Amino acid sequence: MLGSQLNAEVEDIIIFTSGEAVIGRILSFTDNELILLALSESEPDTIPLSQVYFAYNHFGKILHFSRSLSDRLEYIEHYSGYLITTQDDTIYYQQIYFDQRNTDPLAYLTVETGFAPIRIPFLEIELIRMSAERFEASVKRGGISGCSTLLLLSGMSTMLYFTEDYAGEGIFTASGLTTMGNSASKSITDFLPELSFIGLNKQGKSYPLATMILPASTLSWMAYDWYFDKRTVYLNPIKTNQPFPANMFYFSLTEWSDNLFRKLWTPLSRKTLDQIYKARKAIWKG
Questions:
Q1: In this predicted model, what pLDDT tens digit does every residue of 243-263 receive, in sequence order?
Q2: Against a cut of 0.85, is the pTM above it?
Q3: CB 218 within 8 A of CB 139
Q4: Residues 58, 14 contacting (CB under 8 angstroms)
């Protein structure tokens, strides 16, 4: 366990999303990085926070919870499962809740209905594996990706019908819009089964493809999640140089787009402010 490697001179432990760890002293934090003087180094090093899973000191106080870790802990709370401690004990639970406070963070486990939950220190949990209920997420993703594929194919089919029937009067003319509507109707009908009560006396020519795409997409996502073991979340490594079987970075589209916006907007806003300042300075001199 990492705690056994500490001595009186060491204060902080950095756990990376890869599962590797470094022991030393955190000198400072910024919004995007931390400055660390590692135990084995004489000069401080700058570490991007995007690589940090979490950080704590030898008193057990959490110094930094990454967004990846917080999102994973919130996700785990939706499912039953089991956890393995750093002492290699296995505990099955029906429900789990994480108290993400900085001092003495805990996991509360409901092991049996009607009994009080048991408390496990967060820093003593090696990994958590969610039950097979987790595959419901695979089914949802399969449904979404399957429907998205069908919409894409339907859109392509609509455009093919439109190019065949388009008379050239202009897309936004009455004739063009009517042609587009008819093309979309033909495309949608191609993917529908026989529905005699609405006038469809035979199934669409693309209906067999639609019945294949949805289950294939669902099974593919389930196989992907099973093969890459998406049910298991690793928390505390046992050794500093032993990475997790899988990287625990958790992608967030919101975070990615926000970072991209900041990278683009910050230099642009500074340039704009500089131009405004120069213009005002010129006016004041005039």
A1: 999 999 988 776 666 666 666
A2: no
A3: yes
A4: no
